[in-house]
Amino acid sequence: MNISFEIDPETGDLMAIYIHIAEGEVSRTTEIAEGRCYADEDSGGGLIGIELLGEVHLKSDLHHISEKYGVTGLDRMVTTIGEAVHA
């Protein structure tokens, strides 16, 4: 897994977080939480990545994705992302 952040250069505000889960070509993007959380899927419905925008609700959004796609370990990422954002 790889995590990237998009920061507004003017304000320093966090604009987006992308969590790259697996290699592959994105076939479709599914909205998980309206306007703030999206899952990139391959043609078979497998999870490739997660995009979190604007107001981030890490714990609830990652929990929902973990259940929907059967990906373990996402709950541990909440602490890692929080530490990186506040570093």
Textual characterization of the structure:
There is one protein chain. 28% of the residues lie in helices and 36% in strands. The protein is α+β, with helices and mostly antiparallel strands and 87 residues long. The protein has one domain. It has a 5-stranded antiparallel β-sheet. A hairpin with a 3-residue loop joins strand 3 and strand 4. The radius of gyration is 13 Å and the shape is globular. 14% of the residues are buried. The model has no long low-confidence stretch (mean pLDDT 86).
Summarize the structure.
With 87 residues, the chain is α+β, with helices and mostly antiparallel strands. The chain contains 2 helices and 5 strands; from the N terminus they run E-E-E-E-E-H-H. It has one domain.
Number of domains: 1
Uncertain residue segments: none
Fraction in helix: 25-40%
Q: Span from first to last CA?
A: 20 Å
Structural class determined from secondary elements: alpha+beta
The biggest sheet amounts to: 5 strands, antiparallel
Element-level helix/strand string: EEEEEHH
Tally of DSSP β-strands: 5
The Rg value, from CA coordinates, equals 13 Å
Average residue-wise pLDDT: 86
Number of DSSP helices? 2
Q: What order do the strands of the largest sheet run in, or round the barrel if closed?
A: 1-2-5-4-3
